[in-house]
Amino acid sequence: MVLKAIINKLNTSVKIYLIMDSPIFRFSKDFNFSPNAFIEKSSKNWFIKIFIPKNINIDKIKPLFPLFNVEKRSDYYILTDIINNHNIINFIKEIDVVNGLRINGFRMVGHSLEITLSLPENKKYELSSIINKEILKPNFINDIKIYNENLIDRLNNKNAESPLYIIKVSVDSELFTNSKLIKLLSNKEAISELIDNYPENDSFRVFIYTEEKLMEDDAYNISDNIYETAIKNEIIMAISKKANSMFIFRDYVFFRLMDKRIVITTVMPEFRSMEYLKILYSISTEFNIKIDLEAFDKYTDDIFNNN
User: Quick one: 125 exposed, middle or buried, by C-beta within 10 A (0-12, 13-18, 19+)?
Assistant: First the structure.
């Protein structure tokens, strides 16, 4: 199975706009673009991180920096604010555990936090039941958009807004000998997709796209040969934890078994790509494993024809 085979699997896109009452969002009118955001979860508080690439004209907002918690990095700024609205926290928690739903990312759009989701057609009603409970709350949900969009269109649109990068690496499949991931990928011609950017209890959720029925007892059948299950793997977990500690959001991470190697293809924002590549190689040193770099380049939709 190639990546092109899964482009229409999660063909429903949803954008939900939540009103954010915070200093950063109050000054959003001075932003001439919609920056990416990262939700940082801790045991006590949740924070929102707004990323401002340095190659964007920020003359209007730079004088406002003293009002915020700002970190200066080589290629971007990070603006941090605490999320005090527990309605927002609870809403994200509730949608994040819906089987078959993936959170594609967060952005600051005007005075709202934009949450972009994708899901199969048969999961719209489950999401609607969650939204219906929240929509009448005052000053909470500002807008909702539901539309059809395949994976290629989704990535092409995002790439037009903020450039994406492709990072493809491979590792010897023997490193995953006792892993459930290898079993799932080798039993059927399949592709696995990481859908859990915030792994908990040393496990993370994945979709499995197959050509045939999957017989795993703990794999939840979503629809149309799409399954969801939980995976444990110390190498992938180490990568995720280190990326999260640096607030690096990966748009898509795919796993395939090819010629006795696990091929990992990541699509992510270009301005964080070098940091992520360094994480991969730091993990290779930490675990004493060999990681081969297969591709490191600007995103094009050729990825779906050549992978």
Answer: exposed
Q: Reduced to 3 states, what is the DSSP secondary structure of residue 59?
A: coil
- Model's pTM, two decimal places? 0.92
List the one residue out of 108, 61, 113, 65 whose CA is nearest residue 85: 113
Place of tokens 């999401």: 127
Amino acid, res. 120: P
Per DSSP, the chain holds a count of helices (H) and strands (E) of: 8, 16
Query: What per-residue confidence (pLDDT) applies to 299?
Result: 96
What's the Cα-to-Cα distance from 76 to each of 35, 57, 270, rounded to whole Å?
11, 12, 12
H helices within the chain, ranges in order? Answer: 23-26, 86-96, 124-134, 151-161, 180-187, 234-245, 273-286, 303-306
C-alpha distances (whole Å) from 186 to each of 38, 104, 179, 192, 208 are 34, 27, 11, 11, 12
Provide CB contacts within 8 A for 117, sequence distance 6+: 13, 14, 15, 16, 95, 101, 102, 103, 104, 127
Supply 306's token pair: 């050549």
Averaged pLDDT in 10-residue chunks for the chain of 307 residues: 86 94 77 85 88 82 82 90 91 91 91 93 91 92 94 94 94 80 77 78 86 75 87 88 92 91 94 96 94 96 80
Measured over the CA atoms of residue 261, residue 267, residue 270 and residue 273, the dihedral's sign is negative
| Alpha-carbon gap, residue 202 to 200, rounded angstroms | 5
CA proximity to 35, closest of 78, 65, 64:
78
Please give the Cα distance from 47 to 96 (Å, whole number). Answer: 17
Domain locations along the chain:
12-160, 163-306
Report whether 269 contacts 36 (CB < 8 A).
yes
Residue 278 in tokens: 């360094």
